[in-house]
Amino acid sequence: MLIKFFIKPRKGVLDPQGRAVSENLRSLGFNNVKDVKVGKYIEVYVEENDREKAVEQAKEMAKKALVNDLIEDYQFEVVED
């Protein structure tokens, strides 16, 4: 199974990379850009046939290794391959 993680800075957390992208877009004429958040996309392939077990593993991976829950929010999606 494939687990797709989508991780981004929490609202209110300083995001210098997002600010740089936002300013660059405005300089290119995209004046309606209000804010940009730059995050991470991670794919993890696991050898698991039980979807519920894969979901539990994804939560543990996020908690223990992939996400800093003080400054980041995340979502994940489990996809059967």
Q: If you average the pLDDT, what whole number results?
A: 97
What's the total count of β strands? 3
Residue stretches low in confidence (pLDDT < 50, at least 5 long) are: none
CATH class: Alpha Beta
C-alpha Rg, in Å?
A: 16 Å
Strand order of the largest sheet: 2-1-3
Figure out the total of helices. Answer: 2
Strand content: 25-35%
CATH architecture: 2-Layer Sandwich
Q: Biggest sheet, in brief? A: 3 strands, antiparallel
Number of domain units: 1
**What is the element string, with H for helices and E for strands?**
EHEHE
Distance between the termini: 5 Å
Can you offer a commentary on this structure?
The termini are close together. This protein has 81 residues and is of the alpha+beta class. Helix content is 35%, strand content 27%. It is elongated. It holds the Pfam family PurS.
